[in-house]
Amino acid sequence: MFELTLLLVLLPLYVACLSLAWKLSHHQRVFKTLIFGSLMFLGLISYLFLALGILLQVGFSTSGL
Length: 65
Fold this sequence. Notes:
88% helix; 65 residues; mainly alpha
């Protein structure tokens, strides 16, 4: 169930990154747009997980666990 929820959250985010990459690319080449959108998506996901990890670390350190 968790995997389905994760897919339903991440798939629209990936499509949004591809759409933004398509709009930002001047020549609108499909291969470069896919690479750029995928890298943007991976960067965004890693940033979100980093922020979540920092929040969890701060939460655990202040709660004394």
